Structure formats: C-alpha cells, structure tokens
Amino acid sequence: MTSSDPVISTLSIMRSNAFMTPVFPEFDALKHLLKQQSDSVWTASFQGLTLRTALQPIFSISHKRTVGYEALIRAFDNDGSPVLPIHLFSLPSSEPENVLLDRLCRYLHVRNFSTLSDDVNWLFLNVSPQAVASGARYDSFFGQLLTKTQFPSHRVVVEIVEQPTDDAARLRETVQYYHELGCLIAIDDFGAGHSNFERIWNLGPDIVKLDRQILVRATDDKRARQILNGIVSLLHQSGCLVLLEGVETRDQAMIAVDAGVDFVQGFFFQVPSIALDRVITSGADFDSLLQDYKSQSNEHADPTEQLTGFFEARFRGAMGALKRGEALSSASQHLLSHHAVSRCYLIGSDGVQLGDTLLASHLTNGLDPRFRPLENTTSADWYRQHYLRRAMQAPDVLQVTRPYLSVTGAHMCVTLSCAFEKDGEHQVLCCDILSL
To answer: How many Cβ atoms are within 10 Å of 404's Cβ, its own excluded?
Structure first.
C-alpha cells in the first residue's frame, strides 16, 4: 500500500533506489512536492510546512553592484506564520529525511531563480553537511537537477559549511564533483569553529566567506581589525576571492572596504526577501560609501606617514651624528627621549646587528620579564625583515612599517629605518616606536 503523504512517498522511492543508479529518479520524485503559484513563484511542501525561497544580494565593492544572491529557505505553517529555520531543520529524524530536505531546498531555489530576469549573476546555494559528508554518491542529484532545469552550472556557487570531518578525502571528492560540474566553490563561515587554512589549501575554493564574528570583533578592537586585513591578504595570496557577510552598520561597511574584501553581504545593504522580483531590481549606494571612505582617508592620513613626519627631524639628527662618527648611545639620545620610542639599533649591510640595542630609559623598568629571553639582540640577523631590505634599496629615504609584533619583546610597534653610508659601507639605523 502506498502512503498518501508525498514526503513519505518520496522517501520510500529514495530508499528503494539507495543502491541503484537509474536515470533521474531522485529529481522526478521531488517534482510533486513543488507547486507554482499565481505570481510564478514556486513553493514546496515539507511535513505540513510551505517552503519559499528568499534571496539576499551579494555585492562587489569595486563594481558597486550586485554580482550574486544567496538563496535562503523560509518556512510557513498552515496559517501563514513564519517558522524559524532552526525549527525547520530540526524536523528531519533520519538521514534520508535530511537528504530530502536539502535536495528539496536546492531544487526550489534553482527553479525560482530560473524564472527571474537576471541571467548573469551567481546563485549561492548552501549544501547540507550530510550531503557533503556522504560524498558524490548522494549528491549526484545536483548534476541531475542542473541538467533537468538547464540551469548553467557556471552560475552556481556551492557553499560548503565549515565543520569538522573525519574523512578529508571524501570532502575533497565532493568538492571535486561540484568543480567538475562547472560550479564555483565557496567555504562558508571561515574563521569560526574548525575553520583553518589547511582546508583552504586542500579544497582550493574560489570564494571564502568570512564569519560575521570576525567583523564584530574588528568593529571594537583595532588589533582584530589588523588581523582581519591580514586574513584577507592571505586568502588573496591563496588564490581566493573574499566575501564578508553579516555587514549590519555603515561603520562595518567601512571596515569591509578598508579590509580589501571583494564582496559584501548583510542587512546594511539589503535584508533577505521572498519578494524575489523586488530583490533583483534593488541596489545599494556604493558611490556614497566609497566617497565617505575616500574623504576619511584624506582627512585621517595613514598613521605611519604621520609618524614619519613627526619623528623625521629627530631621526635624521641621530643619523647625521652617526655619520660624523658619534657612538649610537650619544647620537640617539634625543630620539630615545621621546616617550613613544622604545629602542634604537644599528644594522650592517649584511643584516647583522652592530652592537647592542639601546633601550629608552623610560622603558627599562617596564620590560615584561616573561620575554626576557628575547631582549639580547647582539649579533642578531635581521636580513629577513622588510624594513631592512626596503632601507637598503633606497638609501637616505626614511622608511616606516605598518604595526607588527616585535620579536624583541612581543609588543606591537612600528619601525623607522634608513640606510646611510659611513666609511664606504652602508649601515641602517632603526628605531622602534610603540604602537597601542
């Protein structure tokens, strides 16, 4: 006897075909769960709930326009009241039900997106952890879906949620399957939980979506903002485009612009909506945002450039004294007297430090005893440091670094450096300035 419940019937078909490879049974079995409404929008049924597609635009900062949409599922009960997504995804009580819900959502999203007037931009689709963990055997359905709907695979970005896995090979196999279909791959929620660069190197995603918590921290913490900028730079060097999601305020939008991310998504730009036609015709005011960013950049000069101007006279005074033959201790006395200066030292053209590091007197009693093994830098080799190489490449030009963690005391600082000639050889004077 067959069940009158379409979901139960579909599950029965899936179970009976679990170890078979028929042509398109899984796709066809889902058809009767979808229904086209009078406004041409498709809905789906799952355990008494009506499922709808919501879209949230994804914007390119440089292009100043929408380049894609993330498809999100919205569930409603018989009275039309919304059901929280967490409640919807807690309904499946077995692996087949989880797989069914995942496939049903993606089928619904592709069907709805296909009816819209946008025929260029990406559709971002989430894939359930169960589908990823099960590998290409279970998700061969997705290839069938794209073939049957004739939706171009190059317009699909498959989002892989960051999660622990005991089978890295299976995960690579699944990602490779999507790549072979012609889809792009995005790692979702990078920077949270179990995410790490090892997965980036192993999977080679096209896009990395940074977790919102990174942005939240960067909003109030200057060091976290520097870390965000560093992560974006590393991901770019790894060959990935970077998307920052969860942007909710103008300040956070400015942080995203400054961090150099490629794409942004969040309530500040546009909330997800089931009114699909209106979503694809709306935009965001990037002209105003970028103009504010340019104005702020002009009003608030780069702090490192300000440091150069402020300390240049003292620094060149010390360098001139060294050229005249004075010892570092007397030549740098005026420079070290400033409360922000922590240390001065000389480096030879081979990168090896000449003599001891001179500490500012106001810092001597405030050294952290936990880092005492790092204090003695006599004969240390600083050739690897970019401030040394930059100075050697442009003698007599004062160089300044961005804030970094100094290995001589595990504190944040910027370094001023300049190469000069003495007795026919080049030396480099360096000065560390504490960075709060």
So the answer is: 16
Q: Is 132 exposed, middle or buried (0-12, 13-18, 19+ CB in 10 A)?
A: buried
pTM: 0.81
CA gap 114, 108 in Å, rounded = 10
> Mind listing the pLDDT tens digit for each residue in 293-333?
988 876 555 556 677 788 999 999 999 999 999 999 999 99
Instruction: Find, among 75, 24, 11, 1, the residue nearest to 45 by Cα.
Output: 75
Model pLDDT for residues 168-179, shown as the tens digit of each residue: 777 888 888 899
Domains and CATH numbers, the chain: 6-299 (3.20.20.450), 303-434 (3.30.450.20)
E strand spans, 191-331: 207-210, 241-244, 263-264
Confidence at residue 62, expressed as pLDDT on a 0 to 100 scale: 94
Q: Nearest-CA neighbor of 116 among 231, 281, 262, 264? A: 281
Please give the helix or strand (H or E) that residue 45 lies within, else none.
strand 42-46
Residues 6+ apart with CB under 8 A from 108: 34, 42, 43, 44, 51, 52, 53, 73
